[in-house]
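Friendly challenge for the regulars: who can give me the structure tokens for this chain first? No prize, just bragging rights.
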Amino acid sequence: MTAEQPGYLAYLLRLWQVNDDGKPVWRASLESPHTGERHGFANLERLFAFLEEKTVELAQREEPAKDINEPGAGLQRHPDNSQGTLSESGIGAGHSDQ
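First reply, four minutes later:
Bragging rights claimed.
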């Protein structure tokens, strides 16, 4: 996948817990697999705010994505499926010979 793919963001997420004045706090970092750029976050709220900002920016730059609640949204045909039935994309899409 490329950084230019519409409607797509990818990050490697790292989470760890630290003590802040005796109180456990989660820290986080995100790293772009495309650029190697890293972002650090002092708490989960800042992480979530960053992700919301990035998704809003992306939505404003791109044309709207297909509504996942539309019939057939998120479904794809698998080339090895001779019946041509549909399955939900990314969920159970792996092939097993069992």
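The two ends are 30 Å apart (CA to CA). Residues 12-61 form one domain. Your move, everyone else.
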